[in-house]
Amino acid sequence: MALKTVLAIVLLSLPRISSSHCYHPDGTSTSDDYAPCHNDAGKASMCCATNRTTANVNGCRTDGLCWEIETQNVWRESCTDATWKDPSCVKLCTAGIVGDPIEGRRDMSTNDIAITVCGDGSMCCGFNATSCCISGGGFWLRNNTVYAHDHNPASRRSTTSMPTASAAAAARMPQESDFDNTPLIVGLGVGIGIGVPLLIVFTALLVCTARRNRFERMSGYIDKKVKPKEQPIIHELECTLPNSELDSKPAADTMLVSPASSLPRSYDGQTGTWTALSRSETVFTR
């Protein structure tokens, strides 16, 4: 009888040790949709919503977190230890309020919380917590233990090796002196040798054209504004008196009138005619 009582007590205690019930961080019980990820005797286990028959069926990850099969989102859900003091309970995003565009503001102690996995491997609370990832505010999960900094030596080695790889890559980058600049120099010399004479010739043509235009403008101005005055035509009249011979014989007083042909004439430039002048000479004998 005593043996049966002891066995009954042991049997009753086994479910409590390896209980299939799951709890939120505040100790409240979850629904039957949640089940332990493993049933090791005497050990607590993280729980995921693997019993769901509707959408958002979950699967267990090896690090104690859960993932939605349909969306591939990562979640921190519940644990079989109601106090969450067992080391198997992943104490990530278990207190405080988180806000995200999908779930809104949620109390992390009473709900499943979505986890954003950053590019460096750290984890932030909430959907699409990119600002947390950029600012480096994520947490690191190693062997069900949450750290504020990365405690994985392999990760530190890979991180510290990056500058070395960058330095090696920079060392392999070609320097400016490695390039052959001879074609560039030759082309530059040929261009200068041809371009400078052409520039000189073009400049000379411009100067000559400008001077010629200026001269033509000045010539036209002089032709229009300064006209030479017409000089009057001066005609010189040669007047020659014929030689007259006096008779040696005395004679009476006689008046001699020179013939008209021997009289001086004047020229009319407008009519083009010559006009004899009326002139008489009187010779008195002694």
UniProtKB/TrEMBL annotation:
This is Mid2 domain-containing protein. Keywords: Membrane, Signal, Transmembrane, Transmembrane helix. The lineage of its organism: Eukaryota, Fungi, Dikarya, Ascomycota, Pezizomycotina. The chain crosses the membrane at residues 184-208. Residues 1-20 form the signal peptide.
